[in-house]
Specification:
Chain lengths: ~650, ~150
């Protein structure tokens, strides 16, 4: 085992200090840093250059490797999270083991955060370089290992993004498991009636997609199912899916609906945001895929209290099956696509708007349900208080969005859906007055600006200003809005008989659970974080996991679909390569030092360590597939036998002493 | 060397151990968002706060750092490796005890949590820790070392 100890003889370290244009050089005196570095023991050459990551910069490094025999490389530049892979590649191409590289983060953790003190920033940069050089002395060449990939993918979420991603992966010939929490596919898009700016009927374009996903020979659809556990890494994940019973045999059910007619339990219908009710045996929509009823175990009288079973008696197809049990499926997949979508923002905390107090204050999504011919009002927009069509409607934009009290971000769909709904109201009742109170109208998509103009031509009135409060006139029950017209610069009041709050998208309630199970972080806005905001918007921070749709950030349908196809393309890379290279993250165990105490075995969160019998003693042994490289074992080993290859004790200790006081 | 370059202003030197997945990312985010914090800290990246051996911290103090920051993912369950942060926390409490026995103010070592989205928090932690160490003054170990030299 020649890679246990670093070779401290014949050290030839090359140090490369990057200006990053002006990003580093404007604050840090890069010349001083390089001069200083050139005097450090073991350093053969130190250079500075405008952009180390460009062709010329990389060429500089490889030339030194080949001509000067540089055998350790230190790049002082941006965060290793940005360019470590780039420079490892440079080393590899120049014939040097890629792990003989160390980066000093003098941009994100120095020049960008110490701009007002260039002197001390330069001193810090020098220290960071000293530390990197110290670590570089102790680097050891490491090998990546090729492992076979499980050629299948898991897609979490059966909305439009999940469906698209599943179809793309499956059409490439790989097995897909499409996991949907609810009883049917369709997600949020399945709740909308018409979609902007084309005014297509959502069901007409969504249903064929749902059917192709459900019938695809390479897609295994798992409804009423959710992810409960995940382990493994890129190329080889092991996941556990809990599948709740439907209590209805999908194959036998003819969706005649007699069961639901007879079911005595009535509960608020979540699809209609509680504006209608459903039974304990139900279907989410007449277009549901799979087209089969489902019993909601939380509310079924028989499952709760052992009485009733009316559905079973009336079902002619004999599809009801109370013996179905919850199952936990264990699957192996190579890639995971997360498409869990969003929840609409709940405006109850904005007390000034009286949502929940005033019947005629509704949310945009509620209005959407009213416009659906299969919705709670049969497609007619009506005042909830009277059941009559409204004569004067106000939309309030940016409710809960672009508001420091709730969400700072723009939800990207509310302007357009309000415009769409305003057009539908005008269509249904050309006499009605429709006002949209806005901060800015953001009509950035293809055909959106044209759509905006269409609503203006149809007579929708746009008022620039924020509504500060709504109160109900106790006599007429009309809603009185107080607002400031910022174009006129005056505070005004006006009465309406229906107010629609254009609420935005927020991360789905289960985002936190998914983020923990998969170990993928969230951004400050609560959505799942991408690996790079500009260059890797489809990848989660963890390799092998990809993001699609509003799970990552609010999106409209075309963007969700585009990102889903992008995520699928990314997820297909390991599947089609068939092999992935795993980093040498697992520890190296020096058997002659190991006393076989087993401390590491107990501490390992993955059960990756075991004690093995040798002739005269027991020694710890690591399973490289299970290990994730946290280094907890190294930290705990009393004899220093368990060595984190990329973070050895010598490396860390020498970093500590190199720049100490 | 004790730096008193700006008159009587004592500038503490801090060593940070940041876990790759949360706190190092938070520090990077502070940079990307161009937040300022005092340049007193130098950070070492480790994969998980669970990798930090108490001896690393002792060594840092012995070498003359005035304070050591260990930062990881929020407990209980944000750690990328399930429970490394909890192990770090257990070690941290033991370490504080040990420091007290050694006659070193345990507040020279600080354990903090900052998620990948908490750049602001990271900057504030460094600001606050620097401030406190300024008030605590130079590490007694450092004074001894300097005296001995
Ligand atoms: S990975 Fe951050 S504390 Fe374990």
């Amino acid at each position: 085992m020649n890679d246990v100890r670093a070779d401290l003889k014949n050290l030839k370290i090359g140090v490369y200090v990057c200006h990053c244009g002006k990003n580093i050089a404007d604050v840090v005196d890069v010349k001083r840093v390089a001069d200083f570095a050139s005097k450090l023991p073991g350093v053969e050459v130190a250079r500075e250059y405008l952009h180390m990551c460009d062709d010329v910069g990389q060429e500089m490094i490889s030339k030194d490797i080949m001509e000067l025999g540089i055998n350790r490389v230190v790049v002082a530049a941006c965060s290793p999270k940005v360019h470590e892979l780039t420079f490892r590649d440079t080393l590899r191409k120049a014939g040097l083991n890629p792990y003989l590289l160390e980066m000093a983060n003098i941009r994100e953790q120095c020049s960008w955060v110490h701009r007002s003190d260039p002197d001390r920033a330069t001193e810090k940069a020098i220290d960071l370089v000293k530390m990197a050089v110290a670590k570089a002395r102790w680097l050891i060449p490491l090998e990546t290992k090729a492992v076979e990939v499980t050629r299948s993918a898991l897609v979490i979420g059966g909305g439009i993004a999940g469906i698209q991603a599943a179809l793309d992966v499956a059409d490439n010939g790989y097995q897909v498991y499409l996991v949907e929490k609810g009883p049917s596919l369709g997600g949020r898009m399945g709740q909308w009636s018409k979609v902007f700016p084309t005014m297509d009927c959502a069901a007409c374009i969504l249903t064929p997609k749902m059917v192709s996903a459900a019938q695809h020979p390479k897609i295994k659809l798992l409804t009423n199912s959710e992810l409960i556990e995940a382990s493994g890494s890129l190329g080889n994940f092991k996941v556990k899916i809990r599948k709740r019973p439907r209590y209805v045999d999908e194959e036998k059910c003819t969706a005649c609906g007699l069961c639901a007619q007879k079911c005595p339990v009535r509960i608020p219908n979540e699809v209609d945001f509680g504006m209608s009710s459903r039974k304990a045996i139900y279907i989410t929509s007449p277009n549901a895929v799979p087209l089969a009823y489902s019993i909601d175990g939380e509310n079924c009288l028989y499952l709760k209290r052992g009485i009733c079973r009316v559905c079973e008696r009336v079902c002619e197809a004999k599809a009801i099956d109370f013996d179905q049990k919850e199952e936990v499926l264990e699957l192996r997949v190579g890639s995971i696509i997360v498409a869990i979508g969003y929840d609409p923002f709940d405006p109850t905390p904005l007390e000034e708007y009286g949502f929940g107090r005033y019947k005629d204050v509704v949310t945009g999504p509620m209005l959407e349900r009213m416009t659906d011919p299969m919705g709670p009002t049969g497609g007619a927009i009506l005042r909830p208080s009277t059941g009559k069509p409204p004569r004067k409607v106000a939309f309030i934009q940016c409710v809960g969005s672009r508001d420091a009290r709730f969400n700072l971000y723009c939800s990207r769909v509310c302007c357009m859906y309000a415009i769409k709904d305003s057009l539908i109201i005008k269509e249904q009742n050309p006499e009605s007055d429709v006002y949209i109170f806005y901060m800015d109208i953001r009509a950035f998509g293809k055909g959106y600006e044209e759509f905006y103009l269409r609503s203006q031509e149809a007579g929708v009135k746009f008022i620039r200003g924020k509504v500060s409060s709504i109160r109900e006139d106790p006599r007429t029950h009309e809603l009185v809005l107080r607002y400031e017209d910022t174009l006129l610069g005056t505070a005004l009041e006006d009465s309406f008989d229906l107010v629609v709050l254009s609420v935005g998208q927020v991360p789905r309630a289960d985002t936190d659970a998914i983020s923990k199970i998969l170990g993928i972080p969230r951004s400050a806005d609560g959505f799942l974080m991408e690996a790079h905001p500009k260059l890797r918007p489809n990848d989660a921070v963890v390799d092998g996991i990809y993001l699609a749709g509003s799970a990552q950030y609010p999106k409209d349908i075309p963007d969700a679909v585009a990102q889903a196809s992008g995520a699928a393309a990314r997820a297909l890379i390991p599947l089609s390569m068939g092999q992935v290279y795993v980093e040498p993250i697992s520890p190296l165990i020096e058997e002659d030092r190991c006393g076989g105490c087993g401390v590491c075995v107990k501490l390992c969160p993955y059960g990756a360590l075991k004690l093995e019998e040798r002739e005269d003693k027991r020694v710890a042994k690591v399973d490289e597939v299970l290990c994730k490289g946290c280094g907890t074992c190294s930290a705990a080993c009393p004899s220093g036998a368990v060595r984190s290859r990329m973070f050895t004790e010598e490396q860390i200790l020498s970093m500590i002493s190199s720049a100490a006081g | 060397m004790i730096e008193n370059r700006k008159g009587d202003w004592f500038e503490p030197r801090i060593l940070g151990f940041l876990c790759n997945w949360c706190s190092y990312a938070a520090a990077d985010l502070a940079g990307m968002s161009r937040m300022e914090y005092p340049p007193n800290i130098r950070c070492v990246r480790v994969m998980c706060s669970g990798r930090v051996e108490p001896s690393f911290v002792l060594e840092a103090l012995r070498e003359g750092y005035d304070g050591v920051l260990i930062a990881g993912c929020h407990p209980p369950s944000d750690c990328h490796y399930q429970s490394g942060n909890l192990k770090a926390r257990r070690r941290y409490y033991l370490l504080r005890k040990l420091l007290r026995e050694l006659g070193i103010n345990p507040d020279r070592v600080r354990l903090e949590w900052a998620s990948a989205s908490e750049g602001q928090r990271f900057a504030e932690i460094v600001k606050d820790f620097t401030e406190r160490l300024r008030r605590l003054g130079p590490s007694p170990l450092k004074v001894k070392r300097v005296g001995a030299e």
